[in-house]
Amino acid sequence: MPQLNPNPWFFTMIMSWTIFLLLIQPKLLSFTHMNLPSNKTLSTPNPTPWTWPWT
Fold this sequence. Notes:
Elements (H helix, E strand, L loop, with lengths): L6 H23 L26
C-alpha cells in the first residue's frame, strides 16, 4: 500500500511547518490591534429603575 510510505509526505509536512513557523507566524504576530482592550475606559452604568404601570 503506497499510502503508508511516509517518504515523500514527511518532508512536505516538515517543510510546510518550517515555513509557517519561521516566515508566516512572525509576520502575523507583528500586526497591531486597532482596538486594544486596555484603552477602553471603565464606566459603571447608572441604570434607572423601571416603573411598572401595574404596581
